[in-house]
């Protein structure tokens, strides 16, 4: 099998991949509490594992390489439960910018960010746009539960989608590495109902305000390894489709170029 993990390759091998215009994949996650039964690196591990599997699925068709996961995200809303390390947005964007700048220096020109943490979704949407403008290269961000939402909804039985330390994430761990799941604690991980919030409003809520007991949203008691395997298959297929999609990897329109409004529109 073609090696797709950046950290396992040599510098000459990576230079050869850059010369072939390889797609670089950056898994982005977090280090934060995931209830009493899941490890704090859940989001980072899931994003990395799914990214590697998707890269392996397309490696025979196209050059692709997966960076080690960026293991800190925006997780300040989880501090009330402990075990959490967070960046602020300015630092988060600065780290991403340094990654892109480094990739450009290494000769790469495309970046696919695969996110595993809900608190990163909005920041990544802004960062991906700004980095594409600054560096003139396609920077595409997605969050893995959003890659196959209908398929995931058809797999889960206690909830409609992926929440937090829930049926879905616990099933994923049971499929990937059941030894890291404190299965004797699952019965203690049933969440309370989240309070309603006004539609159309945006503000900060800590996770304690939204899921006071015990840092979980969803019902992990319904988790199984078989569900996890099906979730993995659906997400890997969705990520592979995005990797293959030529429309995503076109060079971005240089809208900030001086006089851009005076140029004739593309035909």
Fold topology:
Elements: H1 11-19, E1 23-28, H2 42-58, E2 64-66, H3 89-106, E3 111-115, H4 121-135, E4 139-143, H5 149-155, H6 167-176, H7 207-210, H8 225-244
Parallel strand pairs: 1-2, 1-3, 3-4
Helix pairs in contact: 2-8, 3-4, 6-8
What does this structure look like?
By secondary structure, this protein is an alpha/beta fold. 37% of the residues lie in helices and 7% in strands. It has 8 helices and 4 strands, in the order H-E-H-E-H-E-H-E-H-H-H-H. The protein has helices at residues 11-19, 42-58, 89-106, 121-135, 149-155, 167-176, 207-210, 225-244; strands at residues 23-28, 64-66, 111-115, 139-143. A 4-stranded parallel sheet has the order 2-1-3-4, sandwiched between helices. Strand 1 (23-28), helix 2 (42-58) and strand 2 form a beta-alpha-beta unit. Helix 2 (42-58) packs across helix 8, helix 3 (89-106) packs across helix 4 (121-135) and helix 6 crosses helix 8. The longest helix has 20 residues, at 225-244. The radius of gyration is 19 Å and the shape is globular.
What class would the helix/strand composition place it in? alpha/beta
Spans of at least 5 consecutive residues whose pLDDT stays below 50 are none
Distance between the termini: 42 Å
Number of helices: 8
Number of strands: 4
Major sheet: size, sense and barrel closure? 4 strands, parallel
What does the overall shape look like? globular
Mean pLDDT: 94
- Radius of gyration over C-alpha positions, nearest whole angstrom: 19 Å
């Amino acid at each position: 099998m073609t090696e797709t993990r950046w950290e396992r390759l040599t510098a000459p091998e990576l230079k050869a991949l850059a010369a072939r215009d390889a797609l670089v994949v950056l898994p982005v996650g977090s280090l934060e509490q995931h209830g009493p039964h899941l490890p704090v690196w859940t989001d980072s591990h899931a994003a990395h594992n799914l990214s590697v599997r998707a890269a392996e699925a397309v490696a025979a068709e196209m050059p692709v390489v997966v960076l080690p996961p960026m293991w800190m995200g925006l997780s300040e809303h989880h501090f009330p439960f402990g075990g959490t390390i967070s960046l602020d947005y300015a630092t988060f964007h600065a780290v991403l910018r340094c990654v892109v700048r480094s990739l450009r220096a290494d000769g790469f020109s495309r970046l696919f960010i695969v996110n595993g943490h809900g608190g990163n979704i909005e920041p990544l949407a802004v960062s991906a746009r700004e980095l594409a403008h600054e560096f003139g290269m396609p920077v595409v961000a997605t969050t893995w539960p959003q890659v196959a939402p209908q398929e995931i909804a058809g797999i889960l039985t206690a909830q409609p989608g992926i929440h937090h330390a829930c049926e879905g994430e616990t099933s994923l761990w049971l499929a990937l590495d059941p030894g890291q799941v404190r299965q004797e604690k699952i019965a203690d991980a049933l969440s309370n109902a989240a309070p309603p919030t006004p539609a159309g409003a945006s503000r900060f809520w800590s996770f304690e305000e939204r899921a006071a007991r015990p840092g979980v949203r969803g019902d992990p008691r319904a988790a199984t390894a078989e569900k996890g395997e099906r979730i993995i298959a659906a997400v890997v297929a969705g990520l592979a489709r995005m990797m293959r999609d030529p429309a995503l990897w076109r060079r971005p329109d240089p809208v900030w170029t001086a006089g851009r409004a005076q140029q004739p529109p593309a035909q």
